Amino acid sequence: MDRSPLFETFARIPLALDRGEGVWVFTTDGRRLLDFSGGIAVNALGHAHPRLVEALKSQADRLWHVSNLFQIPEQEALAEALVGSTFADKVFFCNSGAEAVECAIKTARRYQFVSGHPERYRIVTFAGAFHGRTLATLAATGNPKYLEGFGPAADGFDQVPLGDLEAVKAAIGPETAAIMIEPIQGEGGIREVSGQFLRDLRALCDEGGLMLIFDEVQTGIGRTGRLFAYEWAGAAPDIMTAAKGIGGGFPFGACLATNEAAKGMTPGTHGSTFGGNPLAMAVGNAVLDVLLEDGFLEDVRRKSLYLKQRLASVVDGHPDLVADVRGEGMLVGVRCVVPVGDVVAACRDQDMLCVAAGENVMRFLPPLNASEEELDEGVRRFDAALAALDQASARDG
Predict the structure, then answer these.
(1) Angle of the 50-60 helix axis to the 278-291 helix axis, nearest 10
(2) pTM of the model
(3) What is the pLDDT of residues 354-379, one digit of tens each?
(4) What is the pLDDT of residues 46-57, one digit of tens each?
(5) Which are the catalytic amino acids?
(6) Which domains can be identified in the chain, with CATH numbers?
(7) In the beta sheet, which residues pair with residue 17?
(8) Measured between alpha carbons, how far is 39 from 368 in angstroms, rounded to an integer?
(9) With the C-alpha atoms ordered 78, 83, 88, 90, is the resulting torsion angle positive or negative?
(10) Which has the minimum average pLDDT: 63-67, 125-129, 142-146?
């Protein structure tokens, strides 16, 4: 094969996907695969959901782009829906999760600046986090592997162990502006954060005049069985990010905040050329309409329990390969004993797509509207993949 003209920043799997229907994808050479990777937690309602397709087609016939120099009614509608369903009073629309996190960082720092504390710019973050690929969000992530070769890390981030409240207290100083955390670390390996820890962070921020930022790029928009994962803890942030599922596959992100937190974000302090464009807003409104229908999220929670129970029974049958099930909603992980890449490849041999995460974990990210029958089929293929690995190990042994 000739050398690709693309940047070689992805180790691409040799599968060319041509189209999708719900939980299924079809390759250019005719394979039909069960998609439990979900575009890495993006395809909240699966592929080619008819309401999303219709919303995009209808908007495409009318208006694609006008820029934020003008009012965009679809933005107002989606912002009203998000505000009406969350802690937030204000929303900024952008194009990706990393941009949403950048906006959150700027919002927190700007809040301190207009509150008379310009010295407060540092943000406490947590080991195992993933906040994006821009220079600032890489620094917030703090993973040396991602930072290598890009010069000095952006200043202003202090990383502490996840779940260590005393370490958080020790990291807070006169220059601290905010604490930023994912309610569940997705890329970090479906590492769940206790509700008590999140409530403790809320109390610390209240006591110290700090902003609490929840990065819900992966956990938001129904992925955990609530519209946003912070609802499980009963502790609301001041600022929150969303992306991935919010567009159901169409790229855009959002930063949500209270009126108080957003008071420094005045005209000229931030912007986006494409953020909140009519196409993205049309799809986002359709996604939220589906998620907020009566019983939808309750059904996600019910099916999540079913999926985790089925997976636990498979894990019990292959103790030399996999160890435990973790996660909430349709953000489910299985920790692997053998290299997770081997398990992901074995699943692909069974015509099933999954994605790896930190701590040697395989993520199951089916659409929120996947049926029990489709979840059963995913569990069956996972079991078959593990059985094939068992057989291969026996032969090699």
Answers:
(1) 150
(2) 0.96
(3) 999 999 999 999 999 999 999 999 99
(4) 999 999 999 999
(5) 130, 215, 244
(6) 17-47+295-396 (3.90.1150.10), 63-291 (3.40.640.10)
(7) 27
(8) 13
(9) positive
(10) 142-146
